[in-house]
Design brief:
By secondary structure, this protein is α+β, with helices and mostly antiparallel strands. Helix content is 37%, strand content 30%.
């Protein structure tokens, strides 16, 4: 009887230890997981980072006097931005260098004419005209770091990382932009993830940036 009591006590202690470990692991998580369930999209960002939400970003885009830009914005289904400090929509959509990483994720449905014209180069140009910059690298202090094709369950796209200078001013610091642009299998939806900041900032925060970039996953819309 004494041995049975000891065994029960050991088993109870073991179960309690496992439970405590699980609870500790959950509570100790420092990451948040933004996602769009309808498209099987998710990524992870530090839980402490501030969010610039879809409503504010869309409202800012709505002020653009360019009708074609407004039309494209109207087809955005989801977009958010994250940074250690709150970043205004104007800053999110600018290409000026910052001292903190800015993460921007966007899901937009494409028009029929866009679907017909999409290519690897148009995906490279999804945020800034990298194809043109690559032809005049000195003008933009442009340098390609990564340029690779990506695929996911029938979809495809490109992952780029490059350094550039957003103006010719010597006071404008060089920055690094990491961009992933993916197209859904039926060419109807564009998925974009951008992480950028000044070159010094990128180097300083490269570990967490790499973690964010590698976490970006699109499993595709549920049937």
């Amino acid at each position: 009887r004494g041995e049975k009591a000891v065994v029960k006590s050991v088993r109870r202690y073991a179960r309690l230890s496992v439970l405590l470990l699980l609870l500790t692991a959950c509570s100790a998580s420092t990451m948040a997981y933004p996602h769009l369930s309808s498209d099987g999209l998710y990524l992870k960002v530090p839980k402490s980072w501030k969010i610039t939400n879809t409503v504010d970003l869309t409202a800012y885009e709505g002020k653009n006097p360019d009708q074609s830009a407004q039309d494209r914005a109207a087809n955005v289904r989801w977009q958010e931005a994250y940074s250690p400090k709150y970043v205004s929509p104007a800053k999110v959509f600018s290409i000026s260098a910052g001292n903190d990483p800015v993460v921007f994720v966007r899901v937009r449905d494409l028009y029929a004419e866009e679907r017909d014209a999409v290519s690897l180069n148009s995906l490279r140009n999804a945020v800034v005209p990298t194809v043109s910059w690559a032809k005049e690298p000195a003008k933009y202090a442009y340098s390609s770091i990564i340029d690779e094709e990506k695929s996911f369950q029938g979809g495809w796209g490109v992952h780029l990382r490059f350094s550039f200078q957003s103006s010719e001013s010597a006071e404008d610091p060089h920055q690094i932009m990491d961009q992933t642009a993916l197209l859904s299998p039926d060419s109807s939806t564009l998925y974009i993830l951008v992480v950028r900041c000044s070159q010094a900032c990128f180097t300083k925060n490269q570990k967490i940036i790499e973690e964010i970039v590698s976490s970006f996953t699109v499993r595709g819309a549920h049937g």
